[in-house]
Amino acid sequence: MSRTIQYRIAALAAVTLTLAGCGGTRAGTDPGTDSRGSDAVTSPVSPSPSPSTGASGETCTARSALDAADTGRRFCLSTGGVIRISLDGTADRAWTPVTADGPGLKAVNSGIVLRGGDASAAFEAVSAGTVRLSSSRPLCATSTGRISCKGLQEWWVTVVVTKR
Question: What's the whole-model pTM score?
Fold first, then answer.
């Protein structure tokens, strides 16, 4: 086999592996790291939240702290309650600020974000309503001189606010 063909095969294999790594990310997770950024992948065990029924009769869960693993879920919150969001990112794959779309929540001080790439937010339930909280980040790191992708990892939850 000629040297040119060997280089082309190696380059094709590198591109294939890189693209497979970008496409293998599930929404709300960062493969290869845990929530503290270490290389060991662990699956944290948390107590089962209690399900309840929202204003529209659909089942939702009452929780006060959310993270990337909660994407796509529905949560209930009574007026006066506070919900906190903490999304662990990296400098190369930073989360955008968490936005709220809909009535019922008011942004409050969430504290200090210590690591670049993280998104932290807190919202107080002020009136009945349904709110979609969302954020996104690149699927692949964008570094000069490296292969990258244009995909986004989206995080979102629905919060149903009920009057206490």
Answer: 0.64
